[in-house]
Amino acid sequence: MDELNVIYATIAAGGFSAETLQKIDNLTNDIRYGRKDFIGFTLSEHAGLCKGGAPLIGASIVVSYARRSLTTSGNAESSEGQSKSSAEISSLDFCRDAACARSIEQGSSPANWQIDEEQERLIEEWARAKGLWFEHSESIIEKNFGPMIAQGAEAKVYYREGDPSVAKERTSIYSTTNKALEAIALHNYLFPETAMKVIGFTRDNDSLLRIVLTQPYIRCQRLATKDEIDAMVAEKGFHDNWQGQGVNYISERLALEDMHPANVFIDELTGKPTCIDCIVKFVSNKK
C-alpha cells in the first residue's frame, strides 16, 4: 500500500507531526469506510478491524511502522562501505533502546521484546499527539463508565448499572502490541455481538501498557458448558486442538485459546453462548 510507505517515511523524518497525524487519519478513514484494505486481513477480518474504531486502525498503522523500521534498519547496509539513506538512519535513530539499536545495526532480526518495546513507545507518542492518551485513566473511566466491578490479570472492568456497555483497561498477554491489536480485530470478526471498540491507551502503576476499550454489556444467565462452547466454535470452523485441556481451538487460519466457561456466558436475552473475552491469533508466527 503506497500510503503506508509515505506514512513510514513521514514518521521516520519528523515523528508524529501534524502532517504525519493527518496522513494517518486520512488512511484510517479510507480503511474504515471501505476505500482501502489493511494488510494481513481477509475481507471479513477487515470488518472486525473497522468495528474496533478509528483508534484501533490508527494504532495498527503505527505498530506496523515499528516492525518495518526495525527490519529496514537492520538491512540498510547490505555490504561493507554501503551507506544508509537518511530515511533509514532516521528509522534507526527512532529505536532508542541500546540493545535494539545494536541488534539491528548488526543485521540480526530483532527479538519480540525489542519489537514490543518499540511498538509500545510509538503507540504512546502517537496517542499523546492525538489526544488518545489517558494520563489518569482510572478516574476518567470511573467518571464516564462507572466504578470498577472486576479486575483480573488481563483487564480491569468498569460498569454503571443500566448502561449498555462496559469499559475495560486491557493489558497485553501477547508477544507484541501488534498481536494484541490484531486480537481485538479478530475477536470482533468472530464475535461481533461483543465487539470491542478502542477509545484510548494508558499505563497503569506498574508501567504496563493498557488498551482502553468499550464492549457491549452481556447479562449472564449462566456460564456456558464445554459442549455448548464446542458447538459454538464449530459453527465458526474451529475444532479442539487437544493441547489446552479443552479450552483451546484451532482452524486453518486462526487459533482460539482460553475459551473456558468464565469467558463464555449464556446471554440472558438470546439464550445463546456469547464469548466476552478470549485469546485469538493467527496460526502463522506473525509479529
List the total number of helices.
10
How far the N terminus sits from the C terminus, by CA atoms, comes to: 19 Å
Number of strands: 12
Low-confidence stretches: 76-106
Total individual domains: 3
- N-to-C SSE series? HHHHHHHHEEEHEEEHEEEEEE
Q: Oligomeric form of this entry?
A: single chain
Task: Provide the structure class.
Answer: alpha+beta
Described by strand count, sense and barrel closure, the largest sheet is: 5 strands, antiparallel
Overall outline: globular
Strand line-up in the sheet with most strands: 1-2-3-5-4
Q: What is the radius of gyration?
A: 20 Å
Describe the structure.
This protein is an alpha+beta fold. The protein has three domains: 2-130, no CATH class; 137-216, 2-Layer Sandwich (Phosphorylase Kinase, domain 1); 220-282, no CATH class. The protein has ten helices and twelve strands. The strands form three sheets. The protein has a five-stranded antiparallel beta sheet with strand order 1-2-3-5-4, with helices on both faces. A four-stranded antiparallel beta sheet has the order 7-8-9-12. Strand 4 (197-203) and strand 5 form a beta hairpin. Helix 1 packs across helix 5 and helix 2 packs across helix 4 (54-74).
